[in-house]
Amino acid sequence: MSENKIKNIFRSGAIAAEFIADSIAKHSAKKDIGAHSIFLGQVRADIINDKTVAAIEYTAYEEMALKKMQEIREAIFSKYKLTCMHVYHSLGVIKAGELCLFVFTSSPHRRAAIDACNEVVERIKKELPVWGKEVFEDETHQWKENK
Amino acid sequence: MSENKIKNIFRSGAIAAEFIADSIAKHSAKKDIGAHSIFLGQVRADIINDKTVAAIEYTAYEEMALKKMQEIREAIFSKYKLTCMHVYHSLGVIKAGELCLFVFTSSPHRRAAIDACNEVVERIKKELPVWGKEVFEDETHQWKENK
Amino acid sequence: MTINVLFFGPLAEIVGNAIEMPVVSTLHELEQKLFEQFPLLKDKKYALSVNEKIVSGNVDLEEGFTIAFLPPFSGG
Amino acid sequence: MTINVLFFGPLAEIVGNAIEMPVVSTLHELEQKLFEQFPLLKDKKYALSVNEKIVSGNVDLEEGFTIAFLPPFSGG
């Protein structure tokens, strides 16, 4: 079963819109899919104490994150009637305006795709050992903390 | 205000993955966006009484649908802190595996984008005067009804 | 002194997409007239709109009004 | 007879990414040792993992174990 193989969700650098398009297009062959739900995380140029975030540099405890993601994947597949699910997270320096997270769920009917996508995003933010360093335009930095 | 101009959500034919990619890419200039939520509807090759759906032919009461969509847009913008929202619905014959609905919401933080996208999809299905005719491979048809 | 009556989806298969007909005074009267002409329409499920707004109950009609017979929606 | 200790995010700025050190018997003992060497670590918020699983409370350590100091996550 494809959902039991450990997949590498990490990508070096930003996620390109064309990559997302390719991923969507590949699903046209799966004719039992009726609904896709996609979440994209984009790096914000937040202004913190008068300094503007120019980029976020992501690092991860990769081995542990991939195991945890696999656990999440299995839980999601047993909870929701999904046709497929894809997750990509950027590592390295991602500039403001670029995409750093791509979660993509598909199912015959919309409820499963939407609810699964939502739950995966929440679990990624809460449970994956990934860290974002907000790098300001003056090259100072601070560490993000998810709420 | 851009959200007060009546937009034409209807597109003739299927929604192409490249169109979605372009739409995503355009948002990289909006540096206050942190989250995008996308819903895509895809035509399923359902099997009904041993016959397989080859395509759905969509028609709409366009003037009324656009007014209603505008009403929905305004309600969503006053309820959620969105940066932007885009909706495209296909008209005409959409083959199984092709995309017929594209809802795209963006906001600084994920909750608004996700919840707004979800609500827009529900309201589109329930409130827009659009009809889908399921055309089987043998060219007979039946009319869809949203649950 | 006419009104426009539109039909969509499965109802258009019974009546056609649109008919222009002499104004009648109420929506109920319009429905009765159409039921006589198109008996199949009577058993169908539909909502009604007057000038692009869904209405419920009886409504007075005036010249130039557009009435639409809307079967259950199935967009998206 | 060593264990591997990994540090991430802001903690790596204090200690470095990884140190290999002689095995100690428990996680609490490891923390005490590291606090002495890196006093800044003591005030930091973190979770601990042993062999890629988050643990709570004290845990016995054995040769070859990998322990990680995990500051609050901020992925996505």
UniProtKB/TrEMBL annotation, chains A, B:
E.C. designation(s): 2.8.1.12
Source organism superkingdom: Bacteria
CDD domains given in the database record: MoaE
InterPro entries in the cross-refs: MoaE_sf, Mopterin_biosynth_MoaE
Gene3D superfamilies for this protein: Molybdopterin biosynthesis MoaE subunit
Keyword entries, A-Z: Molybdenum cofactor biosynthesis
Pathway(s) annotated for this protein in UniProt: Cofactor biosynthesis; molybdopterin biosynthesis
Catalytic function, reaction form: 2 [molybdopterin-synthase sulfur-carrier protein]-C-terminal-Gly-aminoethanethioate + cyclic pyranopterin phosphate + H2O = molybdopterin + 2 [molybdopterin-synthase sulfur-carrier protein]-C-terminal Gly-Gly + 2 H(+)
Subunit structure: Heterotetramer of 2 MoaD subunits and 2 MoaE subunits. Also stable as homodimer. The enzyme changes between these two forms during catalysis.
Recorded family membership: Belongs to the MoaE family.
The protein's name in its UniProt record: Molybdopterin synthase catalytic subunit
Organism: Niabella ginsengisoli
TrEMBL record, chains C, D:
UniProt protein name: MoaD/ThiS family protein
